[in-house]
Specification:
Layout: E1 3-8, E2 13-20, E3 23-31, H1 36-47, E4 61-65, H2 71-88, E5 92-95, H3 97-106, E6 117-124, E7 129-135, E8 141-149, H4 156-159, E9 163-167, E10 183-186, H5 193-205
Parallel strand pairs: 1-4, 4-5, 6-9, 9-10
Antiparallel strand pairs: 1-2, 2-3, 6-7, 7-8
Length: about 230
Amino acid sequence: MAKILSIETSTGVCSVAYSENGQVVASKELYQINSHASNLTVLIEELFELDSTPEMSSIDAVAVSSGPGSYTGLRIGVSTAKGICYALNKPLIAIDSMHILAFPITQQQHDSSEIPIAFCPLMDARRMEVYTAVFDKDLNILEKISAKIIDEESFSSWLNQYKMVFFGNGADKCKDVINHKNAQFIDDCHPLAKNLAPLAESYFNQEKFEDVAYFEPFYLKDFVATTPKKKMF
C-alpha cells in the first residue's frame, strides 16, 4: 500500500493531497492566482498536520504534475517535489496535466449515444491558444498533447466521428467558437492533486519513476518574458 504526496500546480489552482493505496485521505486546494510560491509549502505543512495524515517522512513517493501549463506554477511544483524527494530519499512520479484533468471526467456517467465519446481537456494558454489532447473513455490517448489556436474548424475531424466532451479553464473561450452539434462543454474543471493520486498509485505499482536529478517539467512552449513599456528607476 503506497503512501503518496501529490502536488498539482499547472494552473492558477494550487493543490496537494495525501493518498494511501490510491485512495485520497486528505487534500487541500487554494484557488488564488499567482500564489504558488508563497502557499505551496504551507499547504503541504497543513496537510501533514491533520489527524488523518501521518508524518511526512513515512510517505513512499511524491507525485507531481509535469505539465503543460503555467511556466511558473510548474517550476514551483516540480522544484518543491524534487526537494522533498531529495530530503526523504523517495522516488518521484510525474504525470502530465492533461491526464490529471481528464481522469475525473472520464469516470463520470455520460449520455449514451450511437457514436463513441471522446474527452478533450482544454487548458488556457492565453489569447485563443490552448494546451489540449484527446482521450477515449478509458483514458487512452487518441491525440497527443499539443498547443492549438482555436477557430471554427478546431477538432472538426473528431467532432464528425465522436461526441466530444470539452472541459478545463480553456473551455470557456471555445464555447462561442466550437458550435458543432456533437460538442458538449463541462464548466468549472481544474487539474487537482486529489485526481492525480489514483494515477500516481498505478505509476508507483509499475515503478514508473523519474530521475530526480534531471527531471524537468513539460512546458510545451518556451517561456517568454515580457518587456515593460516604461523603464522603472
